[in-house]
Recover the amino acids of this structure.
């Protein structure tokens, strides 16, 4: 490791200036030697303050009984909150099942559509750049605005969605206005928004596929379908798996669209863990109980992401 | 024979573009519908059957957004929070990303990734309690700090990729010339990754601008950001659809324009560098 340059002019300067220069050089040397932890230090401190501390606090709060709206102090009740969410609260259990169902639904839709679109668009054609540009728009659009537009499109009598159904001679839906269809109507919004991500990831995967297996298969007389099934899909699998896991981690946490469009209703039919937790914490101010749900959600998402990190490593990206 | 083959390829091309149009139609239609609703007069916005192409144009919706609501204040709040979060994120994120790239601090990188993975709602309860205790609810500072959760991980992860592309020879040469690491970072590495800095700054700005969850709890009357303001507009049932669509258009259009500038980096940012385009 090389130190900062020695300045020869410093030797000729007045004594206090020399001392100052020496001190600052010592400081500079020290900074240089310890650069590898000084550089990330501000970020680490900030992350500790806004992430680690809150997490620890949430875990501690999950062992308390406390309503933020009341004047009584938090009361330590051990794991009673966890006991309640695991066995004593059917509403939480339903929310967990609903969250997983919603996640499965949107991921199935997005993967099938996204991969199909990637296979279709994996060629040179006029307008390829425009297609990529269009694909990005739903992912970056403000969720509140998207939710609002879909609320208007889903309106049972005035919305354009039902008008299109009648044009196609299909019966009208109630979309987010009925407990039977609301979760599916929300899934459509999520699929609309995030299918392009899977498509773009799959396109990147397709672009990196080697040509040799296809040439070999062609010589051996394989059909296009066989080549797709036995070459493309297996080679594309790592890309698809990573795409699915990224989407899964975010889909479990879906909040904006649901809160904006239905707020968990009608009749709790779209109440996912996130929405239930949010209402427990900020409508009823039941902080202890809500914290235990937060820890449970945290555990579910962390489990999924550990798989992701492991897979990322094996996929060697 | 030749003309038959040509007709077949012509048909295939037509079929391909037909399919492509079918797949992309929903994407285009939602934005088209948002923008056209925003300029339709109320009678036509809720007309049945709806008018797709022939309608009269009015600015009434946009006028109402500014006259009935303090929309300029909300816009200012969104700007301050997104810009503040991005500036702070760059100030601490750039040196961290440089360090991770230069000294291969994988563990640190994974910690940052974890911060992005944890559900935002699990921070919200303690933040709400702290900020209420410190009387920071309804201040820009609270929003800027919390929005860092959205901005900082993206800045760090995207910038790691850019710093890794800086040739090590250049940095070593600067070190031998007597630059300390701070000098190398500031005078050699940073100027080389300037396009990356612009891209990540825009990404961080966009995701802070779009954030709903943190602001809905921590913003108050004076600091309400645009997403919260627009959400509150939905709650008033009797409002004009034209006004709602105008608000939605105004909040989304700047983001879409910014995103088009950095479109090559969007997927990299969203997948934390797992997918490079």
């Amino acid at each position: 490791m090389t130190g900062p340059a020695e300045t020869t002019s410093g030797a000729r300067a007045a004594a206090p200036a020399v001392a100052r220069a020496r001190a600052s050089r010592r400081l500079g040397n020290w900074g240089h030697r310890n650069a590898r932890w000084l550089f990330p230090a501000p970020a680490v401190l900030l992350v500790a303050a806004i992430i680690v501390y809150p997490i620890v606090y949430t875990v501690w709060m999950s062992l308390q009984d406390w309503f933020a709206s009341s004047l009584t102090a938090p009361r330590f009740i051990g794991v009673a909150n966890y006991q309640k969410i695991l066995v004593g609260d059917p509403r939480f259990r339903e929310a967990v099942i609903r969250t997983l169902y919603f996640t499965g639904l949107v991921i199935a839709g997005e993967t099938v559509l996204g991969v199909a679109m990637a296979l279709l668009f994996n060629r040179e054609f006029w307008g390829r750049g425009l297609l990529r540009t269009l694909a990005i728009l739903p992912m970056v659009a403000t969720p509140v605005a998207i939710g609002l537009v879909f609320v208007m499109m889903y309106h049972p009598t005035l919305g354009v969605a039902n008008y299109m159904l009648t044009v196609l001679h299909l019966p009208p839906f109630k979309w987010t206005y009925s407990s039977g269809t609301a979760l599916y109507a929300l899934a459509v919004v999520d699929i609309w928004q995030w299918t392009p991500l899977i498509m773009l990831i799959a396109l990147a995967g397709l672009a990196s596929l080697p040509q040799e297996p296809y040439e070999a298969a062609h010589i051996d007389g394989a059909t296009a379908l066989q080549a797709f099934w036995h070459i493309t899909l297996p080679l594309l699998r790592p890309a698809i798996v990573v795409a699915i896991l990224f989407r899964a981690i975010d889909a479990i946490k879906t909040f904006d669209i649901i809160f904006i469009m239905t707020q968990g209703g009608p009749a709790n039919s779209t109440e996912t863990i996130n929405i239930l937790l949010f209402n427990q914490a900020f409508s009823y101010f039941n902080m202890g109980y809500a914290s235990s749900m937060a820890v449970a959600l945290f555990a579910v998402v962390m489990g999924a992401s550990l798989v992701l990190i492991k897979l990322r490593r094996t996929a060697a990206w | 024979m030749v003309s038959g083959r040509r007709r077949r390829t012509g048909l295939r091309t037509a079929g391909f573009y037909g399919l492509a149009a079918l797949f992309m139609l929903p994407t285009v239609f939602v934005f088209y519908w948002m923008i056209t609703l925003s300029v339709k007069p109320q009678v036509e916005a809720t007309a049945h059957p709806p008018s797709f192409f022939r309608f009269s144009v009015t600015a009434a919706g946009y006028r109402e957004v500014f006259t009935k609501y303090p929309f300029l204040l909300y816009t200012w709040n969104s700007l301050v929070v997104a810009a503040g979060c991005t500036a702070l994120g760059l100030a601490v994120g750039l040196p961290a990303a440089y360090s991770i790239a230069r000294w291969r601090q994988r563990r640190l990188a994974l910690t940052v990734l974890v911060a992005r993975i944890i559900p935002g709602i699990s921070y919200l309860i303690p933040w709400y309690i702290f900020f209420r205790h410190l009387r920071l609810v309804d201040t820009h500072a609270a929003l800027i700090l919390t929005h860092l959760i959205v901005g900082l991980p993206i800045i760090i992860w995207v910038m790691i990729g850019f710093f890794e592309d800086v040739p090590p020879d250049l940095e070593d040469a600067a070190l031998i010339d007597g630059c300390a690491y701070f000098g190398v970072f500031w005078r050699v590495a940073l100027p080389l990754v300037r396009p990356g800095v612009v891209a990540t700054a825009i990404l961080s700005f966009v995701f802070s601008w779009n954030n709903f969850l943190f602001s809905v709890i921590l913003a108050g009357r004076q600091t309400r950001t645009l997403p919260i303001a627009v959400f509150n507009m939905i709650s008033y049932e009797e409002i004009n659809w034209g006004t709602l669509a105008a608000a939605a258009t105004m909040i989304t259009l700047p983001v879409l324009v910014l995103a088009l500038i950095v479109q090559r980096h969007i997927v990299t940012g969203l997948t934390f560098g797992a997918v490079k385009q």
User: Anything to note?
Assistant: Chain A touches chain B through 93 residues (CB under 8 Å).
